[in-house]
């Protein structure tokens, strides 16, 4: 049970908080919800794995309490094991880790699942889908990064469309996509098999978060092969 395991073939999406106004996070999420967002993507960065620093479990806890859609935590941190129990305690619905930042991935995924939340891996653009073959029994979703993690507003990496197709073919797990997702790139990703569309800049940097969220979801759904 959970957000990813209950998608039932639907294409869904939500905003990445990275591009939102952090002084009004819950309101920013509600703006995207007005455009059909069903999940919010919470980017945690540590200035070690990525050269940027954002927020952690304390802010996640407040956000969970203030909104009524699931919070999906994307941990771009080295050694996430210390943080996982705190994110679980904060009430997030799912946690993805970057396998490039984790030494004992099996242990880390078991820790996430043991906390009763859904587990994912977020693959850097050059990390091959085959790298997670033996992690699949412990996964509820795969996040294909279509930019290098660390910043919003970067250029979409086109080859990631084929990577989505490959991940879907290999594992059949729900694929989430993150990085440079817009109403133009979303259909390419959905046609290749992506089901969960995450967008930061495209939603929040245009002045119409609800309208842009809706546009991305409609464009994605129009490309869905069912
Ligand atoms: O995880 C990340 C970046 O590391 C993403 O969640 C970005 O925040 C997406 O931002 P846009 O590329 O949509 O602006
Ligand atoms: Co992210």
Any descriptors?
single chain, TIM Barrel, 8 helices, 32% helix, binds 5-O-phosphono-D-xylulose, binds cobalt (II) ion, manganese
Any chance you could write out the topology, listing elements then pairs?
Layout: E1 12-15, H1 25-33, E2 40-45, H2 57-66, E3 71-76, H3 84-90, E4 94-97, H4 105-114, E5 118-123, E6 141-145, H5 160-171, E7 175-178, H6 186-192, E8 196-199, H7 201-204, H8 209-222
Parallel strand pairs: 1-8, 2-3, 3-4, 4-5, 5-6, 6-7, 7-8
Helix pairs in contact: 1-8, 2-3, 6-8
Function: Catalyzes the reversible epimerization of D-ribulose 5-phosphate to D-xylulose 5-phosphate.
Active site: 43 (proton acceptor), 178 (proton donor)
Pathway: Carbohydrate degradation
Describe this structure in words.
The protein is an alpha/beta fold and 226 residues long. The chain has one domain (12-222): TIM Barrel (Alpha-Beta Barrel), CATH 3.20.20.70. Helix content is 32%, strand content 17%. It contains eight helices and eight strands, in the order βαβαβαβαββαβαβαα. The protein has helices at residues 25-33, 57-66, 84-90, 105-114, 160-171, 186-192, 201-204, 209-222, and strands spanning 12-15, 40-45, 71-76, 94-97, 118-123, 141-145, 175-178, 196-199. The protein has an eight-stranded parallel beta sheet. α3 links the parallel β3 and β4. α2 (57-66) packs parallel to α3 (84-90). The chain is globular and about 40 Å long. The two termini are 22 Å apart. The relative contact order is 0.18. The model has no long low-confidence stretch (mean pLDDT 98). The structure holds 5-O-phosphono-D-xylulose and cobalt (II) ion. 5-O-phosphono-D-xylulose binds next to β2, β3, β8 and α7. It catalyses: D-ribulose 5-phosphate = D-xylulose 5-phosphate. It comes from Rubrobacter taiwanensis. GO terms for molecular function: D-ribulose-phosphate 3-epimerase activity; metal ion binding. Its cofactor is Zn(2+); Fe(2+); a divalent metal cation; Mn(2+). Keywords: Carbohydrate metabolism, Cobalt, Isomerase, Manganese, Metal-binding, Zinc.
């Amino acid at each position: 049970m959970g957000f990813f395991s209950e998608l039932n073939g639907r294409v869904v999406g939500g905003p990445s908080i990275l591009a939102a106004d952090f002084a009004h996070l819950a309101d920013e999420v509600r703006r995207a919800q007005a455009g059909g967002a069903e999940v919010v993507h919470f980017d945690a960065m540590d200035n070690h794995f990525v050269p940027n620093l954002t927020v952690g479990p304390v802010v996640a806890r407040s956000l969970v309490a203030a909104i009524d859609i699931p919070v999906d935590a994307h941990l771009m941190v080295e050694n996430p094991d210390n943080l996982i129990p705190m994110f679980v305690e904060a009430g997030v619905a799912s946690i993805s880790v970057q396998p490039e930042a984790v030494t004992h991935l099996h242990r880390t995924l078991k820790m996430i699942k043991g906390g009763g939340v859904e587990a994912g891996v977020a693959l850097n653009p050059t990390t091959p889908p085959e790298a997670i073959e033996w992690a699949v029994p412990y996964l509820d979703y795969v996040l294909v990064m279509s930019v290098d993690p660390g910043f919003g507003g970067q250029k979409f990496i086109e080859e990631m469309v084929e990577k989505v197709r490959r991940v879907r073919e290999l594992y059949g797990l729900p694929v989430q996509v993150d990085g440079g997702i817009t109403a133009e790139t979303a259909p390419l990703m959905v046609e290749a098999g992506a089901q969960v569309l995450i967008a930061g800049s495209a939603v929040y940097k245009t002045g119409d978060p609800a309208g842009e969220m809706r546009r991305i979801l409609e464009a994605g759904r129009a490309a869905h092969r069912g």
